[in-house]
Amino acid sequence: MVIESQDVDCPECKKFRITKRALEFVEQNRAMLHDKLPPISRATREAEVPLFITDANDITETAAKQLAKESAAPGGE
């Protein structure tokens, strides 16, 4: 099975690949994702294994966990 995807060059995240379906979700939900994408990006880069985020609940949960982790870290907000 071939999964349609697109390569993205991000100045912060570097190069990554996103599925067309995920990209469509991001584009359709920009307002909801605005504050969540940066912590999700950081969580993804820090993950020992790749993260597989499938829906808005995963996005919200991942962003919240990352922000809590960063706040608890020395020097956190």
Report on the structure:
The chain is built from four helices and two strands; from the N terminus they run ββαααα. It has 77 residues and is α+β, with helices and mostly antiparallel strands. The chain has one domain (5-71). Strand 1 (5-10) and strand 2 form a beta hairpin. Helix 3 (37-46) crosses helix 4 (56-72). It is globular. The termini are far apart.
Query: What about the largest sheet?
Result: 2 strands, antiparallel
- Distance linking N and C termini: 44 Å
Unreliable segments of 5+ consecutive residues? none
Overall average residue pLDDT: 85
Question: What's the domain count?
Answer: 1
Secondary-structure element series = EEHHHH
Please give the number of β-strands: 2
Strand arrangement within the widest β-sheet reads: 1-2
Percent of sequence in beta strands: 15-25%
What is the radius of gyration computed over CA atoms, rounded to a whole number of angstroms?
13 Å
Total DSSP helices: 4
Q: Name the helicity range.
A: 40-55%
What is shown here, in short?
Helix content is 52%, strand content 16%. It has helices at residues 20-28, 30-33, 37-46, 56-72; strands spanning 5-10, 14-19.
Key descriptive features of the protein:
single chain, 52% helix, two-stranded antiparallel sheet, 2 strands, 4 helices, 77 residues, alpha+beta
SSE diagram, text form:
Layout: E1 5-10, E2 14-19, H1 20-28, H2 30-33, H3 37-46, H4 56-72
Antiparallel strand pairs: 1-2
